[in-house]
Batch of 2 targets.
Target 1
Amino acid sequence: AQSVSQHNHHVILSEAASLELGCNYSYGGTVNLFWYVQYPGQHLQLLLKYFSGDPLVKGIKGFEAEFIKSKFSFNLRKPSVQWSDTAEYFCAVNARHSGNTPLVFGKGTRLSVIA
Amino acid sequence: GAVVSQHPSWVICKSGTSVKIECRSLDFQATTMFWYRQFPKQSLMLMATSNEGSKATYEQGVEKDKFLINHASLTLSTLTVTSAHPEDSSFYICSATPGFIGNTEAFFGQGTRLTVV
């Protein structure tokens, strides 16, 4: 069975600070990897995803993530956070094979950006 | 991107009553939809896989007679919480993925916050 571990429950940063949120997964096969963001009172939104190819993936709003296969990691980064980045961030994986497969989510990391 | 609409956004019901939550894919067909549950300060946990035209597949520990799922068309899945109790209070989210290949993005509804009093 797959599992996802997010190391930080709550991260507090000042504006313009750099961000890195850790994500490790456990699965014996090939996976797709995702980072979702949930702003207060809103849908889950996809930040970025990795299926194959370049392990450094760039997403929306200046976010990026790097897939390191040997470490089973997919950490999320942003060089300079803004107050508007305050949200809950979820790392997720699903097994890569034909047909729809559900996502397995990490517990989420709450990011609070202060002015 | 594709849109998944969930209704209602929030509902309060009395203990012992039933509540129906709808999940619609507005601009694509979805033979499979997923229902998740999110407890406060916790992650989304998969409850069941909703399959159009056939029975839903439930995750271990999820009571199929309590959480009735019906996927009557390619754009609509419903989750009915029967005989709701306060411990069923939670945030329920559905998702759907356009297409039949696993390597595509899942789109989520806005979620339904259920409070059972």
Target 2
Amino acid sequence: DVKVTQSSRYLVKRTGEKVFLECVQDMDHENMFWYRQDPGLGLRLIYFSYDVKMKEKGDIPEGYSVSREKKERFSLILESASTNQTSMYLCASSNQFAKNIQYFGAGTRLSVL
Amino acid sequence: AQKITQTQPGMFVQEKEAVTLDCTYDTSDPSYGLFWYKQPSSGEMIFLIYQGSYDQQNATEGRYSLNFQKARKSANLVISASQLGDSAMYFCAMREGQTGRRALTFGSGTRLQVQP
């Protein structure tokens, strides 16, 4: 079974803090993704990576950066957290062939106070 | 314009009955894929079913089937014999283009509640 692991289920941070969300997958997938989920808006893509050190902006990259130094690990960084970044963050991975099915982690619920 | 539209914010169904969750999509790419995911209250997104744009038959996975109407650009999820454990958020998603370096675009979701 594919396993995508997010480092924290719940995080509480203060405005202005630098926040790291970590994601690890164990299926040797080339693609990894970070989404943000807000009520009524579905999932919105923040960034994705299709290879080590490669990244592409999604629909809402402002205020975020990412890092992919190893194939299995994809980090989302909030350089200076703000209250409007309070949300559920979901990581996913997929291969680059067949159906491109994305497999998700359990999510991190981040509160910025 | 919305690429994925789910018009039903919430649905109720009686246990053991069938239910259809609506999804329409918008793309000009002839090659695409359509996905349905389930999100229980625990938060994890669970893949349910996939339909490719060139697939001749509607996809089925156990109690889940996808009613794919290409000309109408609709990809409705049908759940047969609903169970209490089917209560969850359901998201329709689309991959545009061939497989490879592709992300998915998600709809806003439908909350399904199965009543005993």
